[in-house]
């Protein structure tokens, strides 16, 4: 059915928190949504350009964009395109009128950020997508400590230009910043950037960023949730001496400071799943999604927990949603390959592999020191039949960090898929004595290892899994 202002399919997800299965396959198929409140002004906030001359400053401009989207989304009189949709235009030359037509919105907000030492310059321009005319534009040259005030001023300028009335609670909500300390905010954004690179050194680096954030602002709830996430992954993959109880205490600290914080509920859910308290974990993930239906961590952690329990259909839907929320996330897409293979969904497997390798290649170009896009990319390349390239990527991952347990696990996956059975078993036998229950559960359900299951040596693997 053709709908006004919507020319291309957009995926819609129905989140049911009461049924036995929150997600099922029908929720992953593209449909054409009706936008509620058709008379409301509609706007898309495109990713602000990083003008600092340093690609490593990208986290800061992205963070400002996300905060403006979040604030505008609190205004009931506005329709705001979700962050995941807006960020598909990141780094691309855009024509405002075309974007407006594609997204079905009448206004586009563009901007740029230049951060240098203790100063920041932020520009913003509101453009009509009907005729490309400027509705509003401004430039803010301020001390870095004024960044929250700048975000607030931009939000109120948009609301005023679009003649939207703010409700009292909306005024209060927009004024509420997660921290008043800009240095803590900067450390938090940096920590988030490092956390999603998923290697031991980056987990440790992210944790240091989050710890610094709470040192600067002991009431910064999101930073406590970030520490809990780092500790969970360090415990899960690298057996760091961090107890589940201490991780739960860290997420509880975040919730005590801000009970409605979706990030803290997702962090608590991850820790509970690591402790095999899956019923409680599922409830926390559902709470997180109800509070923020666009929170990547909630879907990614939830999907991992479902996979560990063998709930493949639900894991597939959750990983797909995670990949849509975060347009640069290659991990969810490549993890989907094994799931779709098990579910005999060949077309979906190939689609996930194609999308995953495109994203992994971009990540590897930007961060050649990270083995994760290399070894996951090798899995995707094999799914596409590009064996020689897969071997090249595998060699690259091993050259970067051959002792990393995640590298070893995924190299074993690739060996198995290549039919190189003996080296696959050798790697699994080496890593399993140091693996925890979730890694062992993944081996049971990971279709990458199907070629090993009929081999006599697999009995030893089962014994090591226990």
Task: Give an account of the 3D structure.
By secondary structure, this protein is α/β, with parallel strands linked by helices. It has 3 domains: 143 residues, TolB, N-terminal domain (Rossmann fold, 3-Layer(aba) Sandwich), CATH 3.40.50.10070; 148 residues, Alpha Horseshoe (Serine Threonine Protein Phosphatase 5, Tetratricopeptide repeat), CATH 1.25.40.10; 140 residues, Serine Threonine Protein Phosphatase 5, Tetratricopeptide repeat, CATH 1.25.40.10. The protein has 21 helices and 6 strands. Strands 1, 2, 3, 4, 5 and 6 form a 6-stranded mixed sheet that branches. Helix 10 packs antiparallel against helix 11. The N terminus is likely disordered.
Q: Would you spell out the secondary-structure blueprint of this structure?
A:
Layout: E1 42-45, E2 49-50, H1 58-73, E3 79-80, H2 83-86, H3 96-103, E4 107-116, E5 119-128, E6 134-143, H4 147-161, H5 168-175, H6 182-195, H7 200-216, H8 221-238, H9 244-257, H10 262-274, H11 278-291, H12 296-308, H13 312-325, H14 331-342, H15 346-366, H16 371-383, H17 387-400, H18 405-418, H19 421-431, H20 437-445, H21 458-465
Parallel strand pairs: 1-3, 1-4, 2-4
Antiparallel strand pairs: 4-5, 5-6
Helix pairs in contact: 1-4, 6-7, 6-8, 7-8, 8-9, 8-10, 9-10, 10-11, 10-12, 11-12, 12-13, 13-14, 14-15, 14-16, 15-16, 16-17, 16-18, 17-18, 18-19
């Amino acid at each position: 059915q053709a709908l006004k202002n919507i020319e291309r399919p957009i995926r819609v997800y129905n989140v049911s928190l009461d049924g036995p299965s929150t997600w099922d396959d029908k929720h992953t198929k593209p449909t054409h949504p009706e936008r509620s409140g058709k008379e409301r002004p509609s706007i898309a906030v495109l990713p602000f350009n990083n003008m600092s001359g340093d690609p490593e400053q990208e986290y800061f401009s992205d963070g400002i964009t996300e905060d403006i989207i979040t604030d505008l989304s609190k205004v009931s009189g506005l329709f705001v395109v979700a962050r995941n949709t807006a960020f598909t235009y990141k780094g691309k030359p855009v024509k405002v009128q075309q974007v407006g037509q594609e997204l079905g919105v009448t206004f586009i907000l563009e901007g740029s950020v230049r951060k240098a030492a203790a100063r920041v310059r932020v520009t913003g321009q509101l453009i009509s997508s009907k005729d490309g005319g400027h509705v509003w534009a401004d430039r803010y040259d301020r001390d870095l400590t004024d960044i929250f005030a700048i975000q607030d001023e931009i939000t109120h300028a948009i609301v005023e230009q679009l003649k939207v009335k703010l409700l009292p609670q909306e005024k209060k909500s927009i004024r509420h910043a997660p921290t008043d300390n800009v240095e803590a905010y900067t450390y938090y954004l940096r920590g988030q950037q490092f956390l999603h690179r998923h290697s031991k050194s980056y987990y440790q680096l992210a944790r240091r960023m989050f710890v610094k954030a709470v040192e600067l602002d002991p009431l910064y709830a999101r930073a406590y949730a970030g520490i809990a996430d780092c500790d969970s992954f360090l415990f899960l993959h690298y057996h760091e001496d961090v107890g589940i109880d201490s991780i739960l205490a860290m997420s509880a600290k975040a919730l005590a400071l801000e009970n409605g914080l979706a990030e803290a509920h997702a962090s608590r859910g991850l820790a509970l799943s690591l402790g095999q308290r899956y019923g409680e974990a599922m409830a926390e993930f559902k709470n997180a999604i109800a509070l923020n239906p666009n929170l990547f961590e909630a879907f990614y952690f939830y999907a991992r927990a479902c996979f560990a329990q063998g709930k493949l259909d639900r894991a597939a839907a959750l990983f797909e949603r995670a990949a849509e929320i975060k347009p640069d996330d290659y991990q969810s897409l490549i993890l989907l390959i094994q799931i779709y293979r098990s579910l005999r969904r060949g077309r979906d497997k190939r689609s996930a592999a194609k999308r995953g390798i495109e994203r992994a290649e971009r990540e590897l170009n930007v961060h050649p020191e990270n083995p994760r896009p290399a070894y996951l990319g090798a899995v995707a390349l094999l799914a596409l039949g590009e064996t020689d390239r897969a071997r090249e990527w595998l060699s690259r991952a091993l050259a970067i960090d051959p002792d990393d347990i995640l590298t070893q696990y995924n190299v074993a996956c690739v060996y198995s898929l290549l039919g190189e059975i003996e080296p696959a078993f050798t790697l699994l036998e080496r890593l399993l004595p140091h693996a925890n229950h979730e890694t062992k559960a993944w081996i049971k359900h990971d279709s990458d290892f199907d070629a090993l299951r009929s081999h006599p040596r697999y009995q030893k693997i089962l014994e090591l899994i226990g």
